Records
---
Amino acid sequence: MERNLAHIALFAALIAALGLIPKFTLAFGVPITAQSMGVMLCGTILGAKRGAVAVLLFLALVALGLPLLAGGRGGLGAFATPSVGFLIGWPIAAFVTGWIVERWNAPILPVATSAAIIGGVFTMYVFGILGMAYMLDKTIPAATMLSLSFIPGDLVKAIATGLITAALARTRPASILSRG
């Protein structure tokens, strides 16, 4: 139990640390950050349940006002922006990513990369697009078009997630809790 709590807290801190990498905000108000890669890593390394809980812990700390989002944003106001759908989708993305890694019995590199693309990109975009459409008062097709600019960077983060997870699996196999 203590080990699970430590891993959950560590990965919530990892998401926060990835927010220190400078963000780039697009013209319509949604930032491009490295934090979504932390969400993907929560799933590939911790697994579905622990990964989702780590992201929920991170979001709870943000909601309480800690400036943990990229650019030092925090508080309930962070959930009233065009990126709200992405934030809501983060724990679900971590869960889906982890669920795939837990169940797909194949070499970790293609599994983790595919899981990060399916869970950490596709699943996250479903929520992100809906949130952008609502917050920007756009149609879903219009919000989808706005979101297309994120996809190349998120695919790079998904590939990096697969590589990091595979490297960790090689050097410290017991640390990949999604496969335990």
Note: The chain has a mean pLDDT of 93.
---
Amino acid sequence: MLSKKQLENSVKYLEELGFDKPEVGIVLGTGLGQLVDKIQEPIVAHYNNIPSFPLATVEFHTGKLIYGTMGGKKVVVMQGRFHLYEGYDFMDITYPIRVMNELGIKNLLISNAAGAVNLNMKKGDMMLIDDHINLQGGSPLAFKNVGEFGERFVDMSAPYDKQMCAKIKDIASSKKITLHTGVYASVVGPQLETRAEYRMLKILGADAVGMSTVPEVIVANHLGLPVVAVSVLTDECDPDNLQPINVPEIIEVAGKAEPKMVELFRSLIESL
């Protein structure tokens, strides 16, 4: 069960380390670590040193919180997130969002690597998430004492902040960066989808599919924290021409697209 004491212990440790009133929180997805190179005067906290924090397991995630300055703002970056497919529960997955909120962030930026279900979108493109479908079979708000942390019944009519979404679209347009807008479906994983599942996702109205992001967005809404999320599309999910999965290629595609995502996030942070 989540307790305020746990959060206090985590926050106290980070504040003593020098995490001083960050304004923006950032969650980095698989293969999307280059953004940390843009942080000035970084202070690093490894997850395994932060009291009450889960530990990262996936080899593509390094497991640390990084505090510093970017775009003229104090930021805290989560390099390495937690997933259901690693055996974590929704409380673990979203705990860092609650910690960043307690540290004082006013906006949350999320990135992920996803598969393109909408075949008008190509691998290497990016998609601004306008809405989502939760297919993970649970909620990070389904626990007994959730009322201690906010309203139990959270409105999700517009989970992604309209102002930040408009700003990031304008930035993409001015920098001639292709940024689609669409619906992200979040599944459990870690296996990828079958041909029939891709067809199902298309029928449901998904434009992209991944294994993260939605729990964090739900908790951000629970906390009244404005959130924006961008998917880097690393593969094309065509059920009529489905190729065996190539994980190194997915990581490579994410890495090539990442400078554009970093530019979008940096410019958005400047504008906040």
Note: Helices lie at 4-17, 90-103, 162-174, 195-204, 214-222, 247-271.
---
Amino acid sequence: MTADSKVTREIMERFNSAFEAHRPEDLDDLIGEGCVLENTTPAPDGARYEGREACLNFWKGIASSGDLVFEAEEIWASEDRGIIRWQLRWSEREADRVRGVNVMRVRDGKIVEAQGYVKGP
């Protein structure tokens, strides 16, 4: 694994941990200026957020919700690209969950691009 891949994987792990631990403040040092996020909804393209503050505010809103339970299925990194496969639950009912993936790019130790996708019905 290259040095860039190690940095990207560390960023992916820290990003995911902020959601699993409901610690939105942990995202502050992870999001870069000029970040662009394409969310999972609404279909088919998802909402687009541009700029550090817009992306950070969106992600902090999700990370702060105690009703949501994120669980990583896999975290992968190569050079400046990272992937997090995850599962999201919003209740104990089996039907109240979704699986998805975030495809991300890291530059200078910060997330600068993210696309979210979910498995549809």
Note: The chain has a mean pLDDT of 96.
---
Amino acid sequence: MATPNARADALSLLLFTLRSGKLMAINLLKVSEIIPCPSLTKLPESHPHVKGVATLRGQSLSVIDLSRAIGEQPLADPDGGCLIVTDISRSRQGLHVQAVSRIVHCLSTDIKPPPYGSGNRSYITGVTRVDNALVQVLDIEKVIHGIAPPPPEAPSGQLAEEDASLLAAANILVVDDSQVALQQSVHTLRHLGLECHTARSAKDAINVLLEQQGTGLEINIVVSDIEMSEMDGYAFTRTLRETPDFQHLYVLLHTSLDSAMSAEKAKLAGANAILTKFSSPELTDCLVVAARAVHAEKR
């Protein structure tokens, strides 16, 4: 079978700079607002990459020194610049940057994976070109995880014997271009006693699906990020639904955005379910539902 071609979705990026002046970007869907840097209250014993806490419309907002968090030189004016306020993965924070440049619109296929050899310490999930200038797309999940890793969550409870058996019989592929987010999902599966296949892009995921097709490890459940370079989760899902050999796959879209906001688009793409990152008990519950659906389809 021929490998399905990459599908493209429209994507909006917010461009910003740090002290070096090189352009960086963040998915606009992850940005709630942009404000001048307000006065901050420094908290004792806080993480060194947290500049302090701001009060925004009566609510506290942790402010991350993005330059320090990703190993860049500190801003020339530590009290200047502006905050990019993000609301992702069930948390809200301000990213202190030198300046916001503009919003650009592109296709997901315009975002390429990071250069080979970037390594696990890299804080980018992709690169693109805007007006012939290289732009790095920030891995904000990795930044946040490095400062405030989520506390260990208690398992959602002892699985019923039948559900545990169904999960053990499932072959799961986890797709995410953020190494941190990928490892969180893998950790949940291992806690359940499950091994899984992984991929860092939709293209790699399709290769895994093709490699396992017709074997005893043929994939039947796909857990995919949405905000990925080259082919995002929506386009990936549509590609699977249009490919006869993969139409039957159970697809759970796993997003750092508010899943309620993305639910309609996920449904139109053909996903079976959508979940906001990251809750280990909720991911477990979704996987049980998926395993039950796969088992029912076989009957």
Note: The mean pLDDT is 89.
